[in-house]
Amino acid sequence: MSLINYKHLHYFWMVAKAGSITRACEQLHLTPQTISGQISLFEYVLGEKLFKRVGRRLELTDRGRVVLSYADEIFSLGQELEDVLRQQPTERMLQFRVGVSDAVHKTIASRLIEPALRSGDPISIICREGKVANLLGELALHHLDIVIADCPMPPKIDVRAFSHLLGECGLTFFATTELALKHPGGFPQCMNRAPFLMPGDDVSIRPKLLRWFETNHLHPHVTGEFDDAALMKAFGQMGVGIFTAPTSISKEVQQQYGVVAIGATRDVTEKYYAISVERKLTHPAVIAISESARRDLFVS
Fold first, then answer.
1. What is the pLDDT of residues 82-91, one digit of tens each?
2. How is the beta sheet containing 260-276 ordered, strand by strand?
């Protein structure tokens, strides 16, 4: 027997969307006591608190956010059904919710995600950007379909998810023309004592890069550290220091930021992963991303 009473679910959904019982009452033309009582009964049947009171405001609990995400889909489908029955057919769009780590270069992210738009069915993409740990929390709550990151699933994070390697590529070093002329010589020796923009502690390539510097007896002068790849390139464009980007987007970086490539290496590689709650990828948009990455973006 189903636990879900859809009248209760609708009351919950209206309160969550309106932000308060009072505003929901105005839309539903019901008394606050009626709605409050129905939601309390809904919570009792589910065995979960869906709202918590913060001062005079109601906020969703973690469980409440999960229920809201499903309620959004349920009542969206209901609206589509009404349109069909009223002979107002609508083209149903598949929603694809993707989280992108700050450390992933924006050009890489856009080129990875773009094939999802050509996956067959009409699709609406919702992108969220942030730290991997925060995005994985959203993934666990089913607010995201995948997380694109520069590292596999961190072992210390208690989220049941699976890492799918999209591909890897070498690293290219870039500088403004003026900065490159100030540090002549062959690569990588020209990097020694040169100003350099270092990826931050949250970027997986940092330890590999440090080992590469040590192996080649290089001691660049670190003039900045950045977790955000786009911000690092912006400072590189201003001539603050030499910076890195994946070799697969070398042409785009040079055109967009007006810089030159001073050298490249395959001894340091960047890897990119799609992290999902599925052991086997089934979402058509994620499958399109995976296939396109291997075929077009990360070609050996």
1. 766 666 555 5
2. 123-130, 94-101, 146-149, 260-276, 162-175, 243-246
pLDDT band of residue 93 (cuts 50, 70, 90) is low
Residue type, 119: S
Domain range list for the chain = 6-85, 94-166+272-297, 168-270
CATH fold of 168-270: D-Maltodextrin-Binding Protein; domain 2 (3.40.190)
Q: What is the pTM of this model?
A: 0.65
Q: What burial letters (b/e) apply to 272-299, b meaning 16+ CB within 10 Å?
A: bbbbbeeeebebebbbbbbebbeeebbe
> What's the pLDDT tens digit per position in 206-242?
999 999 999 999 999 999 999 888 899 999 999 999 9
For residue 198, what are the β-bridge partners? Answer: 225
Give CATH for domain 94-166+272-297: 3.40.190.10
